[in-house]
Amino acid sequence: MCPRLFDAIFVDDTSRLSRTTEDSLAIFRRLDFAGVQLIAVSQAIDSKDEQADVLVTVHWLVDSLYVKELRKNIHRGLDERALRGLHTGGRCYGYSTIETEGGKRVVVNEGEAVIVRRVFQMSAEGYSLKMIAKRLNAEGISAPRPRKDRVAQYGAPRGWCPTAIREMLRNERYIGRIVWNRSQFVKVPGTNRRVARPRPRGEWRTMEAPSQRIVPDELWNSVQARQRWLNANQKRETANSHSERRALERLR
């Protein structure tokens, strides 16, 4: 058994260790098993006391309730900002934020808007997602979220990829329509990873923002029609492929 590097852990209160009851109890038990003393200074909790596990459980339940209420308050504040036309966080390619007296507002970034319109135009002309990505990378145009693992496949270090192009072609903000509260992030149990989950459509808020329009209606409609056609044909080809495979299996 490896020697311990420390004998005790001091935290201001139990919420500094974790704010979920399950994780907190698991940490508490692992530390206790390892013989490491845990002390929450402001709550006067010492893991060596007989009632420590009860006190820890009670305080962590309170911390968990606090986090839930805090999350609701933050969401309510963001909802209010969205209704006032203010920035609610995140970044969308083609836009920048400016400080105003009422808060941050989103404005069109003309330098990036040119690229957005070009992506839509190439799609309308029949370019595939991969072809668009490779063309932008070949010209050295900076991607919205560069990543190192896109070097070999898409032709440029930390460049564009087909998934980024696809999401861009679906984004209604480019025609001046903002959809707020479409999804929420949920923490994966036992990890620090969060995943996006869609909210019920009835909770979505759709707002028109003509000043943020980048793509004209005609071009938008042309791209959406082509994407629907491609999706329908891809489903048809997949179904035909499965039918052929089942037919071959029956012949065997």
Task: Count the DSSP helices.
Answer: 7
Strand content: 15-25%
Structural class based on helices, strands and sheet pairing: alpha+beta
Count of the domains: 2
> Over the alpha carbons, how many angstroms does the gyration radius reach?
26 Å
Helix content: 40-55%
Q: What pattern of helices and strands is seen along the backbone? A: EHEEHEEHHHHEEEEH
Largest sheet: number of strands, sense, barrel closure: 3 strands, mixed
Described by the principal axes of the CA atoms, the overall outline is elongated
Separation, N- and C-terminal Cα atoms:
59 Å
Provide a concise account of the structure shown:
By secondary structure, the chain is α+β, with helices and mostly antiparallel strands. The chain has helices at residues 21-33, 52-83, 110-124, 129-138, 151-154, 162-170, 217-251, and strands at 8-11, 37-40, 45-46, 95-100, 103-108, 177-180, 183-187, 194-198, 205-208.
Describe this structure in words.
The protein is of the alpha+beta class and 252 residues long. The strands form 4 sheets. The chain has a 3-stranded mixed β-sheet, covered by helices on one side. A two-stranded antiparallel sheet has the order 4-5. The model has no long low-confidence stretch (mean pLDDT 82). The chain has helices at 21-33, 52-83, 110-124, 129-138, 151-154, 162-170, 217-251; strands spanning 8-11, 37-40, 45-46, 95-100, 103-108, 177-180, 183-187, 194-198, 205-208. The protein is 47% helix and 16% strand. It is built from 7 helices and 9 strands, in the order E-H-E-E-H-E-E-H-H-H-H-E-E-E-E-H. Helix 1 packs antiparallel against helix 2 (52-83). 15% of the residues are buried. The chain has 2 domains: 8-67, no CATH class; 109-235, Hect, E3 ligase catalytic domain fold (Alpha-Beta Complex), CATH 3.90.1750.
